[in-house]
Amino acid sequence: NLQTASTAARGTFASLRDEDLQKLRQILGAKNVLTPQEVETEELARYNRDWMGKWEGRSAAILKPASTEEVSLVLKYANDHNLAVVPQGGNTGLVGGSVPVHDELVLSLLRMNAVEDLDQRSGIVTVQAGCVLENLDQYLAQHDFMVPLDLGAKGTCTIGGNAATNAGGLRYLRYGSLRGNVLGVEAVLADGQVVNSLSALRKDNTGYGLPQLFIGSEGTLGVITKLTILCPPRPKAVNIAFFACADFDRVQRTFALARQKLGEVLSAVEFCDRSAIDFVLKREAGTGVRDPLEEKHPFYVLIETSGSDGDHDEQKLHNFLEAAMGEESTVLDGVVAADETQARAIWRLREGVSDAMTTAGYVYKYDVSLPLPRMYELVEETRARLKEAGVEDTAKAAGYGHLGDANLHLNVTSLSGRDDKVHGLLEPWVFEWVSQAHGSISAEHGIGQCKPNFLHLSKADSAIQLMRTLKSALDPKGILNPYKVLA
Ligand code: FAD
Ligand code: 2HG
Ligand code: ZN
């Protein structure tokens, strides 16, 4: 049932033996080591299979450490005995990076979920890697701070997984990358060495930026156990507006106008096409999530403002609306959320697309960044390609994503299930199209086991070679997340 899975043969790793199990149980406690022999199939599948059911391994054991020291002891043992390990957080990743390909041990960080410290003046939080993003955000809310990251999987994904994938999400436009906001990382290397690079300083140029090695490395260079993150104050006034546009040119002009008129209070600019919205409306039928506009339109733009002074922000939003609906006439219709319930329902229209397109059939997902003017061309050309092949009635393409970051999510749902013909039409064509347009084949989801064979389309050979050098320096036996990222 695969999109693009690793075809790599099993490496020359050892197979788990009874004496290994005994040792691992000594380190972690018997109940924190699950094996296929002792656990219900469904419980095991939570760790072996990704949430879309696209990738599934057969882990010899699931390991659940509770401390950095336990992670260190487990990795030292695994490295000494040549056992391969997959670090796992909430298992919400979209590129098959968090599940085993063969029988690798799964190292779940979910028990390491404590918020250890918050500096109330600077907003710098120290948190264990397995803390669920939403739980961290709720903790910070009690102290008037927020995580500088938000995404649809917030209720399940972990902050360690977010850092390991350098997740982008819905507020990247305002707060930027985790590469900027994560100040420090504590990580355990493949041989069990604990690297303490947990700086809580905004400025620290003492040598190499070691935390950056682990951010976005998808569990291939080390296991992140703890992070320090610079968190912004929680905004006091938040407004959400939802607009309809007639074409993608007007979508882009609406974004440009929003930047001009809303300036520093702009916190998100997202977009969906009609097809994406139709999937959500069908999926959410009966939940209270509905199209807030009377007529159907080809494109929608969601704009969020966040600031500290409600009147000031509303005045700015008013000026923007006047220009967008009047002199500039970039939007056809629009609505500003009147209360929090409506704001949540509007956000759901956008955040719900991924799930709606996944559950409607078999979904092929592409997460790309492109020069903004060419972003929607890819969706149009995909549709034309599906039509030409005569599969347009069963293979439905939609475009949506983080307009403010020129990050397109092209999803194609095959309503009749997985389809080799559709797959063959999409790959490698999509990746090559993106490469020729000077885009990135992975804007925010990473490479995982899905895209190692296409990495060269977005990275120079010399850069890939340096990645290999780093990998063999930090993990000479290659036990950490094998078959992922590098082919
Ligand atoms: P996992 O899925 O468990 O792991 C992801 C990768 O990180 C794997 O390679 C794993 O080995 C590694 N890893 C996990 N924890 C650690 C650790 N402690 N140390 C080292 N390596 C580790 N992504 C975006 O960028 N933007 C979005 O807007 C976005 N929206 C999403 C919406 C939905 C509905 C879903 C399901 C996913 C979305 N994602 C998005 C994907 C995103 O990458 C993940 O949700 C999240 O960042 C992964 O966190 P996780 O804890 O689930 O990690
Ligand atoms: C989003 O922005 C996520 O909704 C998921 O990054 C995108 O499922 C996808 O393709
Ligand atoms: Zn996204």
- The rounded distance between the terminal residues' Cα atoms is 21 Å
Kindly state the mean pLDDT as a whole number? 96
Number of helices: 17
Ligands present: flavin-adenine dinucleotide, (2R)-2-hydroxypentanedioic acid, zinc ion
Q: What are the segments in which pLDDT stays under 50 over at least 5 consecutive residues?
A: none
Strand order of the largest sheet: 13-10-12-11-15-16-14
User: Helical percent range?
Assistant: 25-40%
Number of domains: 4
Number of strands: 16
Q: Architecture of the largest domain, CATH level 2?
A: 2-Layer Sandwich
Cofactor: FAD
Pfam family, one: FAD-oxidase_C
Keywords: FAD, Flavoprotein, Oxidoreductase
GO molecular function: FAD binding; oxidoreductase activity
